[in-house]
Amino acid sequence: MSTGPVAGPVTVPLGPAKVNLSGIRAGDVNAVQVKITSGGAPFDLTGRTVGAQARKKATDESAALTADVTVTDEPGGIVMLKWPGEDVRALVSGAGRWIGVWDLQVASGTDRVTVVEGAFEANMDVTR
Fold this sequence. Notes:
This protein is mostly beta strands. It contains one helix and eleven strands.
């Protein structure tokens, strides 16, 4: 019995996880806890920088909204994202709703990897 090479190319998905965010509200805390894993194991964030932004379109030059990101467990790969409520209020002011895209990146020096991406929807709050 022969165990030769595998026929054909092998596809290795390198893309980020798809996570759509909705329910982001003007004036609210808008906190989201994220656990980053690789191969089912926690992704060690020691010495790394984590950032998240939202834009109307991915090709827009400037971010419309930047999350406050705090690494809460470096070896456990856990971060807390907070989309500042007052910044959300400025974003949705007038229209009452804003729809765009967002992503979360992990950086080590100049090397970056996008680990999460998706749609982003923010709404004006009612109680102020």
